[in-house]
Design goal:
- It is a single chain.
- By secondary structure, the chain is an alpha+beta fold.
- The protein is 23% helix and 16% strand.
- The strands form 3 sheets. Strands 3, 9, 10, 11, 12 and 13 form a 6-stranded mixed beta sheet that branches. Strands 1, 2, 4, 7 and 8 form a 5-stranded antiparallel beta sheet that branches. The chain has a two-stranded antiparallel ribbon with strand order 5-6.
Amino acid sequence: MTAPNNSTLGRREYVRALVAAGGMSALGACLELSDDESPDVPSGTDDPGSLPERQHAWNESLATDEDGNVLLPEHHVLVPLSLTTSIDDDARETVETSLRTLERAYEWSNAGLVFTIGYTPAYFERFDASLPDAVDLPAPEPLAPGEDPAFDEYDALLHLASDDPAVVLEAEEGLFGDRKKVNDHDVETDLADVFDRLEDRRRTGFVGEGLPAEHADVDGVPESIPEEAPFFMGFRSGFSASQASEDRVTIEAGPFAGGTTQHVESMDVNLTQWFEQENHYQRVSKLFSPEHAREELVGQVGEKLGTSNGLTTERIEATDADARDPGVVGHAQKTARAREDGSPLLLRRDFNTVDGDRPGVHFLSLQRRIGEFVRVRDEMTGADLEVPEANNGILHYVFVERRGNYLVPPRSLRALPPAIPG
């Protein structure tokens, strides 16, 4: 794909567009901005044992905000992979060696690179044995009335994330043989002999204060997005006390203990209606709860909330009553009904996107079992609530276009795992 033109774009918007475009020309244009031949970021480690066994163990290595909430890297790429060879020891060694190259080249951090590789139910269907009972990985399906999403039915998905846009571009190109060095480390083995990269299904995005507001030139992104907002819908997210811990989403038993399951939904968002037909009070009511709006608990972009979204037991239990009067329920209020013993089930790592030149979100969640995501999604639908559709959280504004389920194995099994590891 041709790199975008820099003549009419601000710097951050331009690098976002480069990440979305992908490829060597985009990487070259990105590096030109800093007059470097390679990203200048901290190197990784030659000792794989120093890295966590859980692929999804990111939190301790990522930055935090002033309240202690984990800050996801700014730039994200989801790379779909289709297997092109038989699964044997040579293919597994190729995958593992390629991924080890990234770990040597880049520090496991926002400044460097964090990543996971996960596998679809379709990948595991090639094996005679079924996945063990401890792994709940059904094929994706519609989860709400009127949904008709496409499904991720290729073999694997690579998630690359970094604060440096050149890092995600360079890492991707290095993995597929188009870059012979990554962060000045030699690439001796790549994935091109094992996987095809499905570029037409590649997904990209961004998260961070001010980034959504910089995309007001994209159709469907209104200029009224608050300048400080890190997400398109105008508010902070990822509050640490309102997220499941990495321990909570980790598979505890069986050969895949230490892994997790991952769900990815790609959604269009009607931001024009959200910002231009709703006022701040209504947006707070529909995203959090009516009491959040009445008591002014949120602030302009969620800065009053600290480490929690403010969904107390009393506010969650008020969902039915709020549906009747004032006839509005909050998205967070509804989904919090799925908590177990007061604890959330999902660890969200979603991010904004303007893939296809329209605003959206790639909703990425980790959970111990896909069934737990389905429970949360059922509560989000709120079919049990007697409330007008337009006041039922954010359902009126988001539309699921694609959905996929993945097993993210522990690091020791990430290279083409069998259904029943020996």
